[in-house]
Amino acid sequence: MPLTSSVAEQPARFTDKKYLVTLIFVTSLFMFWGIAITMGDVLNKHFQHVLSLSKTQSAFVQFAIFGAYFVMGIPAGLFMKRFGYKNGVLLGLTLFATGSFLFVPAAAASSFAYFGVALFILGCGLSTLETVAHPFVAALGDQRTSDQRINFAQAFNALGAILGPAIGSYFLLRNNVAGSTDLTSVKVLYIVIGSVIAFIAFCFAFVKVPALLDPHSDQAEVEETGPSSYKALFAKRHFRWAVIAQFFNVAAQGGTWAFFINYGHEKMGFTDAVAGNYMVLFMGLMLLGRFVGTFLMKFIAPHQLLAIFAACNMVACILIGQDLGVVSFIALLSLNFFFSIMFPTIFSLGLKDLGKHTQQASSFISMGVVGGAFFPFAMGAVADTNVAHAYYLPIICYFMIFLFGFKFYKVSEKRA
């Protein structure tokens, strides 16, 4: 009896040795899609120059990427269930590389519509990777440490978010010339990105993934599909609210990131390249927030920290909208620090105790990312008049996230 009690009380490990190589590889994927998404925010500003687009029109960059999340969410989940995590990753990387290579004919035609198609296919790849990678990382060890693993992996997503604007600003914004329509830099950059992603896919094809068995889950449960399964899943209130919270979370992210460079240029007087460099700092604060947040979760429950950070961002948005110069710009930079833990924490809280419904749930929470497709249009319409006032709109988003973290995170026992 004492021996059994001692084993049961052992602290949960971050992961097991047999999962280490797979965890390293899957964690690296978080970095690559972080690069791709934030590169889209640089493209947004670059296309305003070279294709003579308004802010509202350039928001189509975010629409194409995040709209793909909505379209691909369920198919990616079904593919993952049928063919497994590894093949799901390979599908995502293949679509990612294909979309990148399609930038070549789009640049040759100087067509924003063609770029939209390329971005959509690239976005389908990102959606597939996110749908697969989150439950994949959660399954690589004890479920009691799944929050820590997902936040750790998301820290590398934040690293990618730093590299994205740094690379984009250097290759796309640094040499912007008024009236120029040259898209050569876009073409070359995405050839390189596509080649790197194709190489990663080739390497991952040879990685042997150990059997994923969580000793703290009910392994006797059999995966279900069909209307009854979806009904049972949506009977879980904490899952429904996770989808809602993720929708508003990525809505706020999409708009905030899309017009950060515009804010720096129009309100602070920076050149586009300098504003792009500040975006690197902006993303660096998100990386810092991920590490700080992961540490704080040892002392503060994840849902409580989520609510606190959401409240901080509501205050920051009010300060940004007031157009107070340096104070407002510091508040804008702080958004990403407090935003840092939101995506992974909402994801992990939404997947809690779902058992056989976990993979389905991952698909729907990923589909919530479609919020980032529509919200930038609303912010862009306001930003065409005053970019500072556009930052009042995300207050709505952070309030919904606050409600999830404050109350609706609780696992529901209701059944269909």
Automatic annotation (TrEMBL):
Q: Which domain of life is it from?
A: Bacteria
What InterPro entries does this protein map onto? Answer: MFS (IPR011701), MFS_dom (IPR020846), MFS_trans_sf (IPR036259), MFS_TsgA-like (IPR050375)
Membrane topology, as annotated: Multi-pass membrane protein
Give the Pfam families listed for this entry.
Answer: MFS_1 (PF07690)
Which Gene Ontology molecular-function terms are recorded? transmembrane transporter activity
* Intracellular or extracellular location(s): Cell inner membrane
Kindly list the residue ranges recorded as spanning the membrane: 20-39, 59-80, 87-108, 114-140, 152-173, 188-207, 241-263, 275-293, 305-321, 327-351, 363-383, 389-409
The residues forming a coiled coil are none
Q: Where is the Major facilitator superfamily (MFS) profile domain?
A: 20-415
Tell me a GO cellular component.
Answer: plasma membrane
Keywords, alphabetical: Cell membrane, Membrane, Transmembrane, Transmembrane helix
Q: What is this protein called?
A: FHS family L-fucose permease-like MFS transporter
Protein species of origin:
Dyadobacter jejuensis
